[in-house]
Write a structure and sequence with these properties.
The complex is a heterodimer of chains A (357) and B (693). Chain A is built from 17 helices and no strands. Chain A is mainly alpha-helical and 357 residues long. Chain A folds into two domains: 171 residues, no CATH class; 159 residues, no CATH class. Chain B is built from 21 helices and 16 strands. In chain B, α4 runs parallel beside α6, α15 runs parallel beside α19 and α15 runs antiparallel to α21. The longest helix of chain B is centred in the last third of the chain and has 67 residues. Chain B has a six-stranded mixed beta sheet with strand order 1-13-12-16-14-15, with helices on both faces. A four-stranded antiparallel beta sheet of chain B has the order 2-7-6-4, with no helix packed on it. A four-stranded parallel beta sheet of chain B has the order 10-9-8-11, sandwiched between helices. Classes of the chains: A mainly alpha (357), B alpha/beta (693). Chain B: Its cofactor is [4Fe-4S] cluster.
């Protein structure tokens, strides 16, 4: 009898890499739904553009590298990268920018470093930063929530805006952005940042413009709801044990602590922890970006350090840096520190003495 | 953070257990095989008994082919502390003693005794013992050893060694965890033979005098727990603890951690922290050996998996071929697309490459999975560094880093991440979403590192040997030089005496001429001597003429002899020259002129002397030319011909017959040197003559 040989263990869990990636994708759904609801069709169009680009790029490079295209595409990592990028960029970004960004993420950041598992940086975040640095104007053109939009954009308008730069009625992005009350819309982060530089106080800003009326409440609520929806998806991932609590936990806590300390020092110029938490992409970043296993720390202690430092950098860059949001920068900075963190946070192996006994 | 004995005991009494980090919860599939009673397996026709079934050394064979043996008769005997005997599993005839495929992950062949059963199954005389307390420790331990008992949980460590430990034992832990999925042999054993197991524990307690006995069973075996608890009512000192079902809780280090909260130090033994552990199967075997005098010739083997018709536990004689066991359990070949048999559990077991492999002392399970019952084949993908493996690792290693470095063959870095602390439990590979066979990578890395160390040790040894030799050679050289130096001093002293005498003697040119002629003659003689075959004798003649010739007798044989001869010739020439210079003819050298050629005896005539010198010069030139011609093509060959010192030490150089084997290169060299010396002498003599004239 000829017997087949194999190496132990002969038993494995059913969960494979593709499944992990798909679970993350599913967990994004509440957030994406919120974005669709509050900000219109843009995010969906961007997702489609990014998906097509990502899959085409990944397939082409896999073919060039003589790797099995279908097998590697089936790990869904390219799909996930595309989706993460699509929900991070302004929904009306011209299509070719999205294409460039996605191409950069897949080809340069991921495949040129050796493909899945070898990239030092989070592909979606590098792509985001590349776009932000290359096209700062376009990358900060955020639409106001649908409820505040003077002109309601339907699907055709959105498509037209993304592909031609004008809506079906011939309006460009700045016109579209104008809110019902005639103010050019900005994200709350942007608004506060601009206001603070014009030596208004934080409390004044919160009681003016965007935040003043029911309209403003709604605006703030629109962004905050998206963040909370992503947090919900993140909690689902925690529950399914796709991610561990270490990174999101320490990151959120760190944002709260850093912001609170500064807010206590001078509440006029430093925003409150809640403001930091519910605006911009802190919650999204905590559960979906910083937890990217490839580019994050792999030890438990290291993950705590990694998350906490991201939180720290977010508050610092938001407060003192030139850009309103800072999640991408913070994540990239900490991606660079991962080998160091991992090296110094190795757990004590069984049987080794604790400390210097 | 070392839990003290009292703390541990009080925690145990409160039912609080520690845990170990990581671990996984695979489906246990134990119900497949633990529903039926242990069945006696019918005897096979032929048994294959590997001589070594434990960790340690083989015992010495006691039987020969053709011998008739009884059931339980020892086939080998323990002649070293770490050897454990094996016994005949039934009565029959030894038909062969040969290399046979055995239960080994690499399918290696090992020395086995092949036994043809006679079907009688008659025991050899046994010596049961009703009261083990009547025996002293040594006798008991000897009995354990003679019964061939080694750890039956997996590692196969000789039990008598563990049981004879002199350290203070705080905790005697009985391992009934059986954490591997599918395996139920210990489960059934505990259910059906609780009394025997506990008697075994009593014997161990008697031997080891532990302060506390803990019987640990995973909580997925409630029937076994009940059975044992019933038995310990009469033994209140035994604490039965139900531990959380988590793989690999049955690993020795992990179970120690769960029960005591202590960790076995790196490269240490459980005894270092006052703990010793025995498997329930071993306890049962100990009882059999002591109370009934039965050696270890059978064990319980779980045969399970969906590709057998009657999964269950079988009381199996050691040496039973796996295929006999499979056919008795009803192997369903059509359920397996590719035949596969795993010895051990699905997590740490290994696939057999041949069903003729015999059951041995550590064989607890044969798993015969149907297609798709277990993970088939490898679908390895890139590591995404999710560190699910690190979360599962019971040794708190970083499997992703180990994998990374093992794959890249950066073994030094892998060791920096404590590669060798991996217990190969397979938890990491079990959870890996990229289906990377992590353990396989670690095994390979470990094997490579061991190989590397082996080679390093070997080369280190070689280096040591080389250095020792070098040192010895240098010392010998120094001694030799010292000797030479002394000889030279003696020579100089001898030469000085006549020089002083000569100081007041009147310089006589005629004497100079005589001296020159003498020198010439000597030089020529030396040249001739060197030329002759078997010439050491003649070389010695030449040497004999100078009492104080250098004692180069210790120089290595072979080529070096030539050099010696040349050196002698040179020395003589020098001496002659010295003598000539001092215009003195020492008596011992005057002896020789008789056999020196005509010109040497020529009267004191300047012109004649000049002629003679010219002739000598010409001759010398000729000799030099000849020597050059001879040596040119062979000069290289002399280099590698140096012989080991040991040899040259034994061979007294000058008399040695192999002197005759001097090669032509040496000869040529000698000749050339002699000629050069002669030439120089002649020149000098001439010059002196000229000066005087």
């Amino acid at each position: 009898m000829k017997l087949t040989l194999s190496s132990s263990p002969h038993l494995r869990t059913k969960r494979d890499t593709g499944q992990v990636m798909r679970l993350v994708l599913y967990a994004m759904l509440p957030g994406v739904a919120c974005q669709l609801y509050f900000f219109g069709w843009g995010v969906m169009v961007q997702a489609i553009i990014a998906l097509i680009t990502a899959i085409a790029t990944e397939a082409a490079i896999l073919a060039l590298r003589n790797k099995s295209v279908i097998r590697n595409l089936s790990d869904y990592s390219a799909v996930l990268t595309a989706c993460l990028l699509a929900v991070s960029i302004p929904p009306t970004l011209p299509w070719w920018m999205t294409v460039i960004g996605t191409f950069f993420a897949i080809a340069i950041v991921k495949q040129l470093y050796g493909g899945l598992g070898y990239n030092l940086f989070n592909p979606a975040m590098i792509a985001y930063v590349v776009l932000l640095v290359s096209f700062p104007a376009a990358m900060t053109q955020w639409l106001p929530p649908v409820s505040l939009q003077a002109t309601e954009l339907n699907f055709a308008d959105t498509l037209s805006l993304i592909f031609t730069g004008f809506s079906v009625d011939g309006m460009d992005i700045t016109q579209v952005k104008t809110t019902i009350d005639g103010i050019t819309s900005a994200t709350p982060l942007d608004y506060v940042k601009t206001g603070l530089t014009q030596s208004q106080t934080y409390s004044e800003l919160l009681n003016s413009g965007l935040f003043n009326s029911s309209v403003a409440d709604s605006a703030a609520a629109g962004w905050s709801w998206v963040g909370l929806a992503y947090a919900l998806g993140g909690l689902l991932l925690l529950r399914l044990k796709v991610i561990s609590w270490h990174i999101p936990g320490s990151m959120v806590l760190s944002v709260i602590i850093c912001a609170l300390l500064m807010h206590l020092i001078n509440p006029d110029i430093y925003a409150s922890p809640l403001f930091h938490l519910l605006n911009g992409s802190v919650l999204f970043g905590a559960f979906f970006i910083a937890t990217d296993p490839v580019s994050a720390s792999t030890t438990q202690k290291g993950r705590l350090v990694f998350g906490a430092m991201i939180g720290f950098w977010i508050v610092i860059i938001r407060t003192f840096g030139g850009y309103p949001d800072a999640v991408a920068f913070a994540v990239i900075i900490m991606n660079m520190a991962v080998p160091l963190i991992d090296y110094y946070t190795r757990p004590r192996t069984y049987g080794y003495s604790r400390g210097k006994q | 953070m070392f839990p003290e004995f009292e703390d541990v005991v009080s925690r145990l009494d409160k039912g609080q257990l520690a845990t170990f980090p990581g671990g996984v919860h695979p489906q246990d599939h134990k119900a497949l095989s633990n529903q039926t009673q242990i069945a006696d397996l019918p005897l096979a026709n032929e048994f294959v008994i590997p001589v070594r079934q434990h960790i340690g050394t083989d015992g010495a064979l006691l039987v020969r082919v053709g011998d008739k043996v009884m059931k339980g008769q020892p086939l080998t005997q323990s002649n070293q502390p770490f050897s454990v005997p094996v016994h005949a599993p039934t009565s029959g005839v030894v038909t062969d003693i040969t290399q046979h495929v055995t239960a080994h992950p690499s399918g290696l062949n090992e020395l086995c005794v092949v036994l043809k059963a006679d079907g009688q199954d008659i025991w050899a005389p046994l010596s049961p013992c009703d009261d083990y307390t009547a025996l002293d420790k040594t006798a008991l331990i000897e009995k354990l050893c003679d019964a061939g008992i080694s750890g039956m949980g997996g590692a196969g460590f000789p039990t008598h060694i563990k049981a004879s430990a002199n350290n203070e034992v705080e905790f005697l832990i009985i391992n009934g965890a059986e954490c591997e999925p599918y395996i139920t042999s210990d489960d059934r054993l505990m259910r059906e033979h609780a009394e025997s197991i506990l008697t075994g524990i009593d014997i161990l307690s008697y031997l080891l005098k532990p302060k506390c006995v803990v019987f640990a069973i995973e909580d997925n075996k409630p029937e076994a727990l009940d059975a044992i608890r019933k038995q310990v009512v009469s033994r209140p000192h035994v604490r039965v603890v139900s531990i959380e079902t988590k793989y690999p809780a049955g690993g020795e280090k992990q179970l120690i951690q769960v029960v005591t909260g202590r960790e076995v130090p790196r490269k240490g033994l459980p005894l270092d922290i006052g703990v010793t552990m025995f498997n329930v199967g071993t306890c049962h075997a100990i009882n059999d050996a002591i109370s009934f005098g039965k050696p270890l010739i059978e064990r319980i083997v779980t045969v399970t998996g969906k590709a057998v018709k009657r999964p269950g536990n079988y009381r199996t004689r050691l040496g039973t071929p796996v295929n006999h066991l499979l056919s008795q359990a009803g192997y369903l070949a059509d359920k397996q697309k590719t035949p596969q048999v795993i010895m051990g559990g699905p997590m740490m077991g290994f696939t057999l490459n041949d069903a003729a492999v015999p059951v041995v002392k550590i064989t607890n399970c044969l798993l015969v999975p149907e297609t798709h019952e277990l993970t088939q084949g490898e679908d390895e993908r890139a590591c995404i560094r999710c560190s699910a493996c690190a979360d599962a690792c019971p040794a708190t290693l970083l499997p992703q880093q180990l994998y990374w470095h093992s794959k890249a063959r950066e073994y030094d870095k892998a060791q920096e991440y404590n590669l060798f602390d991996c217990i190969e439990c397979g938890a990491c590979a079990y959870v890996c979403p990229s289906e990377i066979p992590l353990v396989h990578y670690y095994r390979k890395a470990k094997a490579d590192v061991r190989l590397e160390l082996d080679e390093k040790a070997k080369s280190e040894k070689a280096k040591e040997r080389f250095e020792a030799r070098k040192a010895r050679l240098e010392q010998e050289k120094a001694e030799r030089e010292e000797k030479h130096r002394k000889a030279k001093e003696a020579r100089l002293a001898a030469a000085e005496k006549p020089a002083r005498k000569a100081a007041d003697a009147t310089a006589d040119p005629a004497k100079d001429k005589v001296a020159a002629a003498l020198a010439r003659a000597k030089a020529r003689k030396a040249a001739q001597a060197a030329q002759a075959t078997g010439e050491k004798a003649s070389a010695e003649n030449a040497e004999a003429t100078t009492a104080d010739a250098p004692q180069a007798t210790e120089k290595p044989a072979g080529n070096k002899k030539a050099a010696v001869a040349a050196a002698i010739a040179r020395a003589k020439a020098k001496k002659a020259a010295q003598n000539a210079e001092t215009a003195e003819t020492p008596s011992d050298q005057v002896v020789t002129p008789a056999d020196s050629p005509a010109p040497a005896t020529a009267p004191a005539n300047d012109r004649k002397a000049a002629v003679a010198a010219a002739v000598a010069r010409a001759k010398a030139k000729k000799a030099a030319r000849e020597a050059e011609q001879q040596s040119a093509p062979q000069s290289d060959s002399s280099a590698p011909a140096t012989k080991p010192v040991e040899e040259s030490e034994q061979a007294p150089a000058p008399e040695s017959p192999d002197v005759s084997a001097e090669d032509s290169a040496a000869e040529a060299k000698k000749k050339r040197i002699a000629a050069a010396v002669a030439k120089a002498k002649a020149k000098k003599a001439q010059k002196e003559n000229e000066n005087k004239a």
